[in-house]
Write a structure and sequence with these properties.
This protein is α+β, with helices and mostly antiparallel strands. It has four helices and five strands, in the order E-H-H-E-H-E-E-H-E. Strands 3-4-1-2-5 form a five-stranded mixed sheet, sandwiched between helices. The longest helix has 18 residues. The relative contact order is 0.29.
């Protein structure tokens, strides 16, 4: 599972952590009937690995969202309200080997 936060928002760390939590909770709910996600969330393999990355700005965040869409990777963008600010995204659980290449150029948070 990949989680991406926007680094340009200049929000307190706690607020950014909340955005990541919102995106992950939304993915957990949306992917609840997906067999790959179910295996991930049940820790059937003894691990739940997330990769937390940071998009430098809205442009990089949008470009990444577009790449994920084009590749058919399911994900959820969390839009903070009432500001309507896209703040984070989380992918549905997938093997790193399947989607890592899509995150080239996006650094760790």
């Amino acid at each position: 599972m990949y989680v991406v936060l926007r680094k340009d928002l200049d929000w307190p760390v706690g607020a950014q952590v909340n955005q990541a939590c919102h995106a992950c909770a939304a993915v957990a709910w949306e992917a609840r009937d997906d067999p790959v996600a179910a295996a991930f969330f049940s820790e059937a393999e003894g691990q739940m690995t997330q990769h937390t990355l940071g998009a430098s700005d809205l442009g990089q965040f949008t470009k990444l969202s577009d790449k994920l869409c084009a590749a058919g990777v399911r994900f959820r963008v969390w839009v903070e309200q009432p500001e309507s600010v896209p703040s984070s995204l989380a992918t549905w659980p997938r093997r790193r080997s399947e989607i890592k290449r899509l995150f080239n150029g996006v650094n760790r948070f």
